[in-house]
Amino acid sequence: MSIYTYICFLSAISIILGFVTSKISDKIQSTIAITAAAMVGSLLLLLLGYLGWFQIDSIAIEVMQKIDFKSFLLDGILGFLLFAGALGIKIPVLRDQKWEITIFALFSTLASTFIVGALIYLVANLISLPIDFIYCLLFGALISPTDPIAVLAIIKNLRAPKRLSMQVEGESLFNDGVGLVIFVTIFTVAFSTEEMTASEVLHLFLHEAIGGILFGFVLGLVAHILISATDDGSLEILLTLTIPTAGFMLANMLGVSGALAMVVAGIMVGNWTRHRGFSEQSQRYLDHFWEMIDHFLNSLLFFLIGFALLLIDFTFKGFLMMLLAIPVCLIARYLSLWIPYSVLKFFRTYNPYTLKIMTWGGLRGGLALAMALSLPAKTVFVNGTDVKDIILIMTYAVVVFSILVQGVTIEKMIKKSKLVDPNREEYLTPSSHFDSHVSAHK
Hints:
Belongs to the monovalent cation:proton antiporter 1 (CPA1) transporter (TC 2.A.36) family. The protein is mostly helical. The protein is built from 19 helices and four strands.
């Protein structure tokens, strides 16, 4: 059968699974329920194969390998999911949180990368698994950015305080693009046959990041002009599809960040074109159309995350690293947020649960898994174990813990945050305003 055939059947299964889980319990987010059900199914297939019954585990593994999770997400549906998420970002709220989101997306992602890399390097050596620091840093790069797909799928329906919600969602959308750029940069350094200079590394980073932002602006501008030139409601909606399809692919071909391009273009279309380019009919259908696409692709993606368990090669030391990676990533996440928050709190008063929710709500998902799967196999070995297998098992552990544990328990924190000054989730201190403070020093 063709890959398209597999995708069709898996899509149908994920939708039916979502329907069944919603009937069983409406208290659990559908994406969490789908992931859990797919993992149970994976374990069942492995057990049946081990017992010698049916022998369909090998068929399932072959299907997962043919789909190529990395290409399916990083080179495919990522553009749709990021564009759909960015459409809901409101510029007035984003402007109010611009300093926090910028700092979290740039500083916190980079800081977390190095903290995770350093801690993994230490714990790996403690269990006699001397992984080179560059590969520990590579794991830090792929696991540090919070996954906007997981975050938006789970957090946005819990109705957190508005400003707090924007911090979580805005950070996840932007640090996704930044994280991908950091990963590509470190990946190039780690696996390049020639040693790269510091200036070459910086040039690669800036080309990906700045190029992606500028290209996204161009995409948004072209889309705005085309949409404004027609009053056909159906055509206006169809024109938005050109951004995450041809636009996303063209960004990747140009060597710039397609992820950042989708976020920028989505914000432009969701704010500027929505009110100045779309007809009244299209304004009503825009969100509904993209919510359906987002829900469908999320169901399929989280189903594949659960079934990716079939691709994991478990070893004893890999199992130890899997257990150690979860607390390491949580510690790094907390420290990378605490540092800027300790400064920002002098200018703005935050909900007391902000740091806890930002830390525990920093979910990882298919994006980290796709980056881990993109690493070359059988290239670097440590004590006879493929480094890719070690990184993959750590990534899967963090992703599954993030979705099934953090995703389920985050709701309690958000409910508590609503009880604190419910009329004003965050407010400026009487004596200062962050923007005015910065302006005064210009």
